Amino acid sequence: MLDIKYIREHSAIVQQAAKHKGIDINIEQLLLVDDQRRSVQKKLDDLRAEQGRANQAIAQAVAEDKATRIATMRTLADTIKILEQEFQTVDQLFEQLMYQVPNVPANTVPIGADASANVELSTVGQPPVFSFTPLDHLTLGKQLKLIDAERGVKVAGSRAYYLTGRGAQLELALMCYGLDFLRARGFTQLATPLMAAGEFFYGTGHFPWNENETFKALDKDREYYLIGSAEITLCAYHAHETLQQAELPKRYTAWTPCFRTEVGSYGKDTKGLYRVRQFNKVEQVMLCVNDDTSAMQLFEELMRNAEDFLQSLELPYRVMELCTGDMGAGQKYKRDIETWMPSRQSYGETHSCSWLGDFQARRLNLRYRVAGKTNYCQTLNNTLVASPRMLIPLLENHQHADGSVQLPAVLHKYMNGLTVLKPE
Length: 424
Prior knowledge:
Layout: H1 4-9, H2 11-20, H3 27-60, H4 63-98, E1 119-124, H5 137-143, E2 147-148, H6 149-156, E3 162-163, H7 166-183, E4 188-189, E5 195-197, H8 198-203, E6 216-218, E7 223-226, H9 230-236, E8 242-244, E9 250-259, E10 278-288, H10 292-312, E11 317-321, E12 333-341, E13 346-355, H11 359-364, E14 367-370, E15 373-376, E16 378-387, H12 391-397, E17 405-406, E18 420-421
Parallel strand pairs: 4-9, 8-14
Antiparallel strand pairs: 1-11, 2-3, 5-7, 6-7, 9-10, 10-16, 11-12, 12-13, 13-16, 14-15, 17-18
Helix pairs in contact: 3-4, 5-12
């Protein structure tokens, strides 16, 4: 969420940012609603002050004047009640509009409507050149008895799957290796809830824009939603709290199942494990002081973590700088890492690294104290590893002509010493 004062002073910039992100919001309407809200608030403040003076006058009035003053007080109270209802209505509209205002991208972000305007920053490693016709991950998974997509669809519908035998073990190996990797780099691991109240989806900027991508879990008293990323529950961990500056930065990680409806991807990536509705992910989240230079240093740290992790898995990838239309509503700056996937004959997105400034912290009321004053934190996040999507490049890039798959050395101990997956 942006500061309304900033929006008022930079309305043209905010409106342009929304346009560049493809978000339909009328900033002029928002400011008119804010004017109305502030006008009603001033009337209320004036009437409440008058009410306070009238109460004192009644206490001091002689008996013959009290009845008249009490009648006036009742009229005043009725007017205040009407204005309170009016304020509640306009304040709810104001809040609704404020939640729809996107973050303003950093000046360096490329302007563009979609992924075609993203900019390639670097490539690392070379895609393998096979002396045989390589198999896709589903074929490999079936031959190696790692993946059973047919029974997954039978049980849970489209985009569902089972990982079986060594496949389930390999996914667990990736998750455990990912957590060990981040703990060694100073991250605190949390085991978070897999659902959260709607306010925290709004708080992290996933709502209102991605509400149709989120599974709802109904409780008798309250609505909850299944998380599509531990980013939501990790950022919400300190919601409505004031930290001390000395505590920052906070480095958190969590391994969670994640859930997305994928309703917006009908007919897209329907074959294989690239786009599924349930997956496992190790996420990295940072909270820091409200300083852009410090935040970007941590952004580069998050990127290094993901790149070092991919390099340890011996996988080729490229780094993309995302344009305004492809970066999401809450981000100030974003890079994706795309890993080479032979069956697609292209790179596929496996990591998204986001700097959100204080956008999430304002919505979550997440502050820190410095020199007796409070300020909003800044937040950043990046994937470390998500499965089963990571299984695609892992299986396809490391396959041999006989249908076996060589496992990267860093995973051997997590696979109980197994170094090669072979057809049975």
